[in-house]
Amino acid sequence: MPLNIRTYHELTERDRSDLPAQITAQRRRVADRLATVRRVVAVLSGKGGVGKSFVTAGLARGLARSGQASGVLDADFNGPTIPALLSLPVARCTLHEDGIAPAVSAEGVRCFSMALLLEDGRPLAFRGPETEGHVWRETLEAATLREFLADVAWGTLDELLVDLPPGVQRFQELAELLPAPPAVLAVTIPTPESRDAVRRALRAASDLKATPLGVVENMVGGPFAGSAADEIAAEFGIPVLARVPFHPSDDVWESVVSKVGSSL
Ligand SMILES: Nc1ncnc2c1ncn2[C@@H]1O[C@H](COP(=O)(O)OP(=O)(O)OP(=O)(O)O)[C@@H](O)[C@H]1O
Ligand SMILES: [Mg+2]
User: Fold this and answer.
1) Nearest ligand to residue 85 Cα
2) Can you give the pTM of this predicted structure?
């Protein structure tokens, strides 16, 4: 159900959109939809390219292999990578009366992503006033998140992992939409630059009362020097859940699952 939002061209008219009521109704739909999801875990970094999506997909596969019902919502609309990481074909999703059915990987991970809606290789483009595209894009992306959360019929899930794009904005939009603040899994590489970005993101998350589960240090043992995970863990009083080398074996995800299993 797309929101009926006025554009700048329509500001001289009386507002008949009743936006607050629309948003309240959609938040209710999100809460109803997620009533069968035990836990929402936001995978957050603040920094780009550190392996959020890689870790999200690995963890979701590890959870599925350990017998838990796991799903991934790919909340990166411009660079959706989760279907590829789960070996799912693009541009495949099915619409049911009850909503959109998530795609299911060979290991049983349920997934929804913009990549399932876009033609292979095509960028995301919103229809709207062309001259104001940059103004509307953020609003439309927030509305897209709301629609994904309200429309995807996950069924019963133990964990819904949400793979976020870099920055904290999508996390803030997510936290506003959910009935309760999500748990947070932070991903960093060892460097001080990554540590600083993750620290900012975790502070933004704690401002919104989200519970940090722990930090995963990715790309360990390669060219990146530093001890970001230990420093973040000490500062926020959270565990280092894993140190993930380049091209890890599947055991590494099993170890994360066993460490977070009790808190997930
Ligand atoms: N431990 C690893 N071993 C090998 N390749 C990795 C590892 N972690 C990440 N990669 C690769 O590095 C690239 C960046 O990882 P990924 O896309 O998961 O980062 P991201 O934090 O999600 O990026 P973005 O900020 O763009 O969303 C990808 O090609 C991914 O497959
Ligand atoms: Mg990513």
Assistant:
1) 1
2) 0.88
